[in-house]
Amino acid sequence: MALSRRHFLKAAAGSGLLLAGGAQPGRAAGSAVPAPEAVGILYDATLCIGCNACMVSCKQYNTMPGGALEQEDGSLPYEHITPAQIYDAPVELSARTLNIIKAYKSGRGTNKDSQADGYSFIKQHCMHCLEPACVSVCPVAALQKAPDSGIVFYEAERCIGCRYCQVACPFGIPKFEWGKTAPRIRKCQLCRHRYAKGGYAACCEFCPTGASLFGPLAALRREAKNRLAATPGSAYDFPVRTVDSGVSQRRPVSRYIDQVYGLAEAGGTQYLLMAGVPFELLGLNPAISEQAYPQLTWDYIRKVPALVAVLIAAGVASHMITRQRAPEKAP
Ligand code: SF4
Ligand code: SF4
Ligand code: SF4
């Protein structure tokens, strides 16, 4: 959808005035206390076998309908441009990959979930922060946090392409479609389209071990604490797919590090992680603050309002040009 002149003027003037005046668009987005209906994902690295089913199902249900082998129009996928190249094996998050499994290895790499001579998997995607910095800095509310589910979602029609969300996110999650004439920001939206129809996160539905588990955030927090309290080696019934599915797999509890990543990080998130290896070794930011990032971000932005206003105005202009040149459907 092309941005109308009225919307352009409103966005550009609004962003400039907001910043010049010290106002903080979207600042109130989210709350340190999640809504009772808030949902999320618990990822347990000790259950993960690195099969990548979550990545494939994420692509199939989100990034490009048709999954790893074709695009919406039936053409070859993503970066593959010749008929011989039909295998998609991303190594980083990108505008085409919203969820990634990575591996950690040390020494001989023989001991699962151990730091010494060990290995572990880790799954990265949007954390769905309780107080998301990306939402707080978006001058046109293209990124929003749903008040009930707490899902942080994106509306391409509003986006002016300023990419300030990319700078603000403490986890480096939002990606920009650099190769497209009408680029969008891409990130995990917790399969919001499936949730609205009674479904849930594809990565959890297709995870064979329960390593990726969907459910109400309160229940996921309880489940994580129960696992931490269990004796390593004792039998435990690990739920699969959703925390309240009634389906579980019995297996011994691994030795966890005493931390559930996401309970406190960045003020709390709706994606929680557990592991047997310290999270900084798994590639998660060890310097992450426990303070919500909107405040930290705006403390910085306040010092450079003119620069930000220029960037936003440039983004608006760029958006108008590209959208007029090649209108594109949102997914
Ligand atoms: S992880 Fe980044 S993109 Fe996701 S909600 Fe938090 S600030 Fe936004
Ligand atoms: S919740 Fe959906 S969009 Fe997010 S990582 Fe899982 S499959 Fe991908
Ligand atoms: S589907 Fe489950 S077990 Fe397989 S890589 Fe993803 S999180 Fe790990």
Description:
The protein is of the alpha+beta class. The chain has one domain: Alpha-Beta Plaits, CATH 3.30.70.20. Helix content is 27%, strand content 15%. The protein is built from nine helices and twelve strands. A three-stranded mixed beta sheet has the order 9-1-12. A three-stranded mixed beta sheet has the order 2-4-3, with no helix packed on it. A two-stranded antiparallel ribbon has the order 5-6. Strand 5 and strand 6 form a beta hairpin. The longest helix has 21 residues, at 305-325. The model is unreliable at 1-28 and 321-331 (pLDDT under 50). Residues 126-129, 132-134, 152, 169, 171, 173-174, 187 line the site of one iron/sulfur cluster (SF4). The site of one iron/sulfur cluster (SF4) has 13 residues, from helix 2 and helix 6.
